[in-house]
Amino acid sequence: MIKIQDLSIQFSDFALKHVDINIQEQEFFVLLGPTGSGKTLLVESIAGITPITSGKIMINGQDMTHAPPENRKVGIVYQDYALFPHMTVMENIQYGLLCQKKILDDHQRIHDLMVKTDILKLSGRKPKHLSGGEKQRVALVRALAVKPSVLLLDEPLSALDPCFRDDIQKLLKMLHKQTKTTFLMVTHNFAEALFLGDRGAVLNNGIIEQIGPVAQLFNHPQTPFVAQFMGFKNIFEVNIVNDKAKCSHIEFEIPPTIDPQTRYLCFRGEDVQISAGRPSSVLANTFLGIIEDIVDRGPYCELTVNTNNTQIHVILTKGELVKHAYHLEKIVYISLPPTIFHYA
Amino acid sequence: MKSHSDPFLIMSIGSCVVVSLFILVPLIQMMITPSWELLTESIFDPDIQKAIWLSIYSSGLAAIISFIIGTPFAYLLARKSFFGKQFVEGIIDLPIMIPHPVIGIAILGIVGKDHWLGSLLHKLGVQMMGTVSGIVVVLTFVGMPFYINAVKNGFESIPVRLENVSRSLGASFSRTFFQITLPLAWRSIMVGIIMCSARAISEFGAIVVVAYHPMNAPVLIYERFTAFGLKYSQPIAVLLIFVCLILFIGLRLVSKKNSAL
């Protein structure tokens, strides 16, 4: 469907380097990465908006590397919607159809799309009279109206209020399923990626760090950056010696099957077991520590436990925090069963 | 201390009053000085009517030429980065800085028969010295920078993403320009036209050099002033101010009505 081969884009202060991505037909592909990693640049180069320095972009088997944007059959939806402010909702949606002289054939399909996305009643309104969620629905319908081969979504949820975000997320999933269009979405939110994406790639400073099924990115990060990006709170550089992963002040027992070449060990804060008293059964990797910090993160709390001069981050619900009366400088036991470890 | 007694606020209000008086007092004085008889006499004076009409339509033509030539140029400056862009922007601002008689002399230098361009124009039957064409060329020269700068700012304020989306929907570059960018820049274009015409209608120095005749309003005011004195130049000035005021208020209203953003 989309084949990006050795794509590089060079700017004076930033470079996208040797990107190779294959996106299958009807796939929901997510491009993850922090702000400034080059995600939007990559998407705009696929759309033909940003010229590339070297490499090749194939869409539907055709070389589109130097094709103008209007010939690529690639739709784009931005986080700020980019609706044409001087046109009504209907005029916005019909714009692409008029450009491609499709309006008569597609009338029923557009009507159905507008019904599905609940924007039919907004047809005569100008964008300035729409809410963020409504604007994004219109932007999606406008892009899908011309039946693009690929729909590029540049952080479509990030400018929305949380109350609209879930709705649009579900709408995206529904539209992807029903229109059978290939979606490529840029996001910096791994929860969105997990909910929507089939496969994904993590971009860091212009380089692809890891590519694969989204669940694999989430559960088996291959680099410390991907681990950190996917929400791993505890990442340690280790040396594997005799079934133990040793870092500067602490060593973890690990299964004997782990590759001795492994450089990093990581685990999630929510997988750490914490107790005020000694655990009844002897678990591997149980350490005594002191609570150094408690940060309220809204629905949950993040505790920093110092054990053997090593900081372990633990995620707890507020209920658990209150129930066990955890407080600063309290002595606690933390257990790290080897099953929670991931290796990079 | 209450905020309305803050020294800077008092100074701001004071400067507002001083500047307003500085502009208004001479103008009001000029407007109230001529007698009603002299004013009505001026309204029906065919020379004055001709001069004011010439000022208006030659400025309008300069604005139309600026619109046609300046709009694509302003778009290029707003959207593209290229080697020497700052130099080109400097060139555009040159007519604002050069003394206006110098502009007249510069234009005369290329439209005379001694210059290949002047000789070509002459062969084509286009006369610049002492003609309306000459006046329009001069007014375009002095008004164009104001048009280009206003419209460039307008194009810059339109998010480039709108154009990107338009292209991705299948619109060509030119269709995107005419259906998305231009309608959204309409207000800036109107402001540019107002600025250009306003600058053109007030031009005197360069016109005196290139085309003293046919006389436009500023030249006629000057001529009446030197020949007959202040009393006979003031009514023309008052009429010109009134006509311009009505025209520019009209243009402002149109631009506000058509504003899309």
How would you describe this protein?
The complex is a heterodimer of chains A (344) and B (261). With 344 residues, chain A is an alpha+beta fold. Helix content of chain A is 25%, strand content 33%. Chain A contains nine helices and 21 strands. In chain A, strand 12 and strand 13 form a beta hairpin. Chain A is elongated, with a radius of gyration of 24 Å. The model of chain A has no long low-confidence stretch (mean pLDDT 90). Chain B has 261 residues and is mainly alpha-helical. Chain B has a single domain (45-257), classed as MetI-like fold. Chain B has helices at residues 7-32, 36-43, 46-79, 85-97, 100-111, 116-123, 132-156, 160-168, 173-184, 186-201, 205-210, 217-228, 230-257. The relative contact order of chain B is 0.14. The mean pLDDT of chain B is 90. The A-B interface holds A 44, 47-49, 68-70, 72, 74-76, 78, 80, 82, 84-86, 95-96, 99-100, 142-143, 146, 148, 152 and B 159, 161-162, 164-173, 175, 179-180, 183-184, 260-261.
Task: Kindly summarize this structure in a few lines.
Chain A has helices spanning 39-47, 89-99, 107-116, 132-145, 162-179, 190-196, 214-219, 224-229, 318-323; strands spanning 2-10, 15-23, 28-32, 54-59, 62-63, 74-78, 150-154, 182-187, 199-204, 207-213, 234-237, 239-241, 244-246, 251-253, 264-267, 273-275, 286-296, 300-307, 310-317, 331-335, 342-343. By secondary structure, chain A is an alpha+beta fold. Chain B contains 13 helices and no strands.
